[in-house]
Amino acid sequence: MASTAPNAWSLKPGGNWPEASRGRPMPCFHPVHELCRVFSQVARGTWRRLARACNVDIQLGETTCTDLVLLGLQQRAWSIVNATLTAHRFSARQEFRTGADIEIWVRGFRFRWLGLRLQCKVIDIRTWKFQKLFYRSARSRQPQYQLMLQSCLGQKSRWQLIPLFRLYVTAPSSSWWAPFASPTGCCCTWNRSLGREAYGCSVLSPVTVASLSRSNKSDLMSVGPHLVPWHLLFCCRYVAAPGDLAQALLETWRRRILQADRDVLPELRSYEDLLRNVQPAIEPPSYVAALIEGRVPEVPPGRAMQGLIVIQQGG
Fold it and tell me: Is residue 57 part of a domain?
């Protein structure tokens, strides 16, 4: 058996089901359902953790939130039947060189790979804004949303990734959340009671971020209506069983996020066709293959990454 790479968490499906003994619904054995459940539970934990931090006036950073999300996925991954989840936290030296992003790579049963690039932002509990949402690189002076599109969809890369902002969210009171849409459209019965806590880990299109930047509004009330809880990316609503994970993820992103990007800035129109034509790849990048094989993955130059998550259907 190959040894596990340092800083990697690798969990195989299996184990018993404590939910059954507590009277809660038994998890479905469809891997897309189970990923939906696991990701929603991590989102709820993020919401509550940020709320507790707010109560004692301690601002959690993006790196801390990301580390805790990786930990939360690791703690729950044993319950994912018919799929494996492997997470890697890059070393402090690599993080200093690369930044604080995450990539998620998903392999379906057709052995095709789909990647997501997540740029993480956390709510500021004092101003209730996402302070760095419109960040511009000091070197290029380009906005981060444009750099994300370039790095994910550039012609020089063999792999085209889905670019998304991942926002760590909480709110000061329930009244703040009243104008926002409920996380509807999920197939999973265990998510009905989540309510606003489902938005603890949310995703946002870079095209939407670009649109918000025109009015320079990064406050929760302005950004909130555009958020999509990240567990909905793994909902099987659009794919019939048994369902290919990579294809399910691609179709859900197209329906829930890409189709909502109607207000495209002129400077981003060149990316419209590239976004619509994203397809799963035949093989993963070398750093993903290294993690699967138990070796230490090396981040390519210029590739910002704090963590790497690999999900493989079929165990």
Answer: yes
